[in-house]
Amino acid sequence: MAEEAVFPESRATVYSTLAAGPAFRHEIEVKRSRFITVLQRTGDEDSARALLAGLRREFHDARHHCSAFVLGPDRDVQRSNDDGEPSGTAGIPMLDALLKRETAPGVTDLSDVTAVVVRYFGGILLGAGGLVRAYSESVTAALDRAALVQRRRLRICAVGVPHAGAGRLENDLRAAGYVMAETAYEAQTTVLKLALPDHPADLARAGERLAALSAGTAALLPGGTEWMDVPLT
After folding, report:
1. Residue 157 CA, distance from chain mean position
2. Which are the contacts of 34, defined by CB distance < 8 A and separation ≥ 6?
């Protein structure tokens, strides 16, 4: 299971990240040097460093294990390491590849991702410019092939309705395109829960739609928030 990001309430309510699952790997060769890129969804610095430590053990005979990661909905945590390559030729180009990745036209919001590039030296010196290109292209090529999702902060809202009308209202809400969370049953009412975009305008529209669907008998009660994965649009 992917690590859950734990941060204070963020400015951003949506960002892009890797789909949950095992680490993604891709390899390129540049002048006989092998560049093995490993991408992993990571929710904190400990997870990012654990990935790097595991790859150091797995590829113990490689000359370099360069890394970069960006974390948090607001991308506040950014780190990179050249691991013995000339300063600025590996970690920073890798980090730039993550930060500048477009997930939609004009949108650069990739986060909660760690990239590690393992290099096996092929005997031909690449020079500073060649190293920058190789490390950047290695991460970019892996991102081109990796599955991404949107991570959205959704406000969980409750709607209390009499048991007799709960089924019809739930069907109407689903038909209107709302994401339903779990349902709770109390003595006199059924509590339907909706997962709504955490934005005042979206909450206001949902409240108006609910009033129309229930003839004014049901009200929206906003609760806490949850981060959820949704397909990348």
Report:
1. 23
2. 27, 28, 118, 119, 120, 122
CA separation for the pair 132, 134 (Å, rounded): 6
The C-alpha R_g of the chain, in whole angstroms, comes to 23
Q: CA 115 to CA 143: how far, in whole Å?
A: 10
pTM exceeding 0.85: no
CA dihedral 5, 230, 228, 95 (to 10 degrees): 10
The answer to whether residues 159 and 223 touch, using CB atoms and an 8 Å cutoff, is no
Q: What tokens does 217 get?
A: 């008998």
**Contacts of residue 216, Cβ cutoff 8 Å, sequence gap at least 6:** none
The answer to whether the CB of 156 falls within 8 A of the CB of 224 is yes
Tokens of 150: 């949107």
Do 16 and 110 contact (CB within 8 A), yes or no?
Answer: yes
- Residue 50, classed as helix, strand or coil, is helix
pLDDT tens digits, one per residue of 184-207: 898 889 999 999 988 899 999 999
